[in-house]
Design brief:
By secondary structure, the chain is an alpha+beta fold. The chain is built from 9 helices and 12 strands. It is elongated. The protein binds adenosine-5'-triphosphate and magnesium ion (MG).
Amino acid sequence: MTDPVSSENLLDNLSTAVLQLNDKMCIDYANHAAQALFERGFSLLAGCPIYQFVTPSSLDVERLKQSIQQGESYSDSEVNITFVDGRHTQADLSVTSIVDAQSQYLLLEFRQIEQQKKISQENHQWAQQQAAKELVRGLAHEIKNPLGGIRGAAQLLAKELPSNDLKEFTNVIIEQSDRLRNLVDRLLGPNVRPKFHWYNVHEVLEKVCTLVDLDPSHTISIVRDYDPSIPDVYLDQDMIQQATLNIVRNSVQALMQHPDIKGEIRIVTRIERRVIVHGARYPLCVKVSIVDNGPGIPNELKDTLFYPMVTTKKDGSGLGLSISQTLVGHHRGKIEVESWTGRTEFTLYLPIERKDPQK
Ligand SMILES: Nc1ncnc2c1ncn2[C@@H]1O[C@H](COP(=O)(O)OP(=O)(O)OP(=O)(O)O)[C@@H](O)[C@H]1O
Ligand SMILES: [Mg+2]
């Protein structure tokens, strides 16, 4: 039997936020999940009264005091917690009164409900998107095989034709078959194996920015807001470049439709801790946000945005986001979206791991 991990280590790996308060309602201990919930490290929480961070109405002061004085424990479900900085979350709360020889304490456990809801919603959406992709891929395969036959037969026919005038028709068949083949190949997605190396994510993003800047058809400005301390990430450069470019291009296209507003795309990189991707939890992720001040994603598209062939553009194939999602999926990452009029934010999460993402 291996040695059990220390209780401190165990507490820090819990997804439940755990706080210990003394009889003055000041914080004596906060595990990592609690530090994430309060968006502060322990040094900024230690010794401070809890009401310095949450509004008194969200945690019933009197009830907490009563609990510590009378040694009563209690639980509350769906507590609305409002932080003094305006953030808001819902959690199931359990308060345990602990009495030892010298003092009395309260143990507070917060289990965030939104997080649970979000995870199950995310898993559901992911499963649906995968099913849609499989369907489209299956169809694409079925189209691809006879297409080769049609093109080949048209080529043979062209050779047998007595007059060049008639070749116009076989050329149409060949051209249209090629067009369809192109579409089918895009539907099937990239079929090369990813080539992972350690890269600075900013180098990849700079390539995307250069490609967008080189396009003379727009005057949209790109604003970089990079966190230079982000470590190298094990990734396939071409794939992440393509995934990001598809998203940035969408922003450019959305902004170009509104020449009346001064278009701006912000590319923000940050480190994000404790990110859950399709049920797996990663301690550290690179978060790349692409934010534009365009018209926002049409409401009717929001549920099916990542499905293949969903588009509002005259000449769009609706594959950009579906491909981006597949490429980020090869890196065990995910893409999230938030959008309303005047602001659309796509966020890529890429886990920072010290092992080959393919294994
Ligand atoms: N930043 C954005 N602002 C507004 N709408 C967006 C934005 N990004 C995506 N969309 C909407 O989502 C749809 C799907 O995007 P997606 O990239 O998958 O396909 P597309 O851009 O239409 O076609 P393709 O990328 O294959 O050329 C777009 O048609 C557009 O309506
Ligand atoms: Mg697109």
